[in-house]
Design goal:
Length: 267
């Protein structure tokens, strides 16, 4: 471009100055927009990782089982509404467990757990679509299998019929916590060994039913955990996102079963 006439060179320099001086302003605005979008996305991801399908009251309020790990490093709360009374939901919770009624989790999750955690290739037992009379009893102190041959397990720590069922487990984040179920001292010994080795996750898993007269039943699940070493904290966010996926899927599967008119008649 050629600018002639008096002051032509001066006018050209002014144009160049304006163009150059405007560039950082546009760049700063774009950067600010991207930063704001990134912050918003990060906040949403963090929120989903710790709570899904619950109100502020449910997310921040106390629930049965909180007393076992008072100051958790991690806490996740999920929830769904079941169009059935708590008395219809409770039997599906009581029979949960590997080799019992199952965990009602998606098949892909079960396959992943079988191969990555337990190192076995046999199919994960399918979750029951009917109530199992032989598994309609659970009591404090019971050990609930969570993998082939008790490769991991839950200890029942609280039972409030038709209201709350709380489990606790101490396990290695990768290998689980295999025990010899024929040896009564084995669970405590394995837990002590994990603590002394310094690599473990100690967590509670509370399934809670809250009646909402005229609106069904709220089914909540809360996980609270402490862990060692501190580096395990880097698994908290991705672990929460995984839990948000399969945890809610599990709750919905329980809800579908409890809402079925005659579950005892299904196979």
């Amino acid at each position: 471009m050629t600018i002639s006439g008096p002051g032509g060179d001066s006018h050209w320099h002014v144009l160049r100055w304006r163009a150059v001086s405007c560039r950082p302003t546009v760049s700063a605005a774009a950067t600010a927009c991207w930063a704001l979008a990134g912050w918003g996305l990060g906040a949403w991801v963090r929120r989903v990782s710790v709570r899904t399908g619950v109100s502020d009251e449910e997310a921040f309020g106390s629930l049965p089982g909180d007393e076992f790990i008072v100051h958790p490093m991690v806490e996740w709360t999920r929830g769904v509404t079941v169009r059935a009374a708590a008395e219809r939901v409770w039997p599906w919770l009581v029979q949960m467990g590997y080799g019992r009624g199952g965990w009602y989790t998606p098949e892909l999750v079960d396959l992943f757990a079988n191969r990555w955690v337990f190192g076995v290739r046999q199919p994960f037992p399918a979750s029951a679509n009917r109530l199992l009379p032989e598994h309609q009893h659970v009591a404090v102190g019971d050990l609930i299998c969570d993998g082939p041959g008790y490769a991991s397990y839950f200890r029942v720590v609280r039972v409030d019929p038709e209201h709350a069922l709380v489990y606790r487990s101490i396990r290695h984040p990768r290998r689980g916590s295999p025990i010899d179920i024929t040896d009564p001292a084995s669970p405590r010994r394995v837990e002590q060994q994990l603590r002394e080795a310094g690599t473990y996750i100690d967590f509670t898993w509370a399934l809670v039913l809250i009646d909402r007269p005229g609106h069904g039943t709220r089914l909540l699940v809360r996980t609270r955990a402490n862990y060692s070493p501190r580096a395990v904290r880097f698994l908290a966010l991705p672990g929460g996102l995984v839990d948000a996926t399969y945890g809610v899927a599990m709750l919905r599967a329980i809800a579908r079963r409890a809402e079925t008119p005659d579950p005892a008649g299904t196979s």
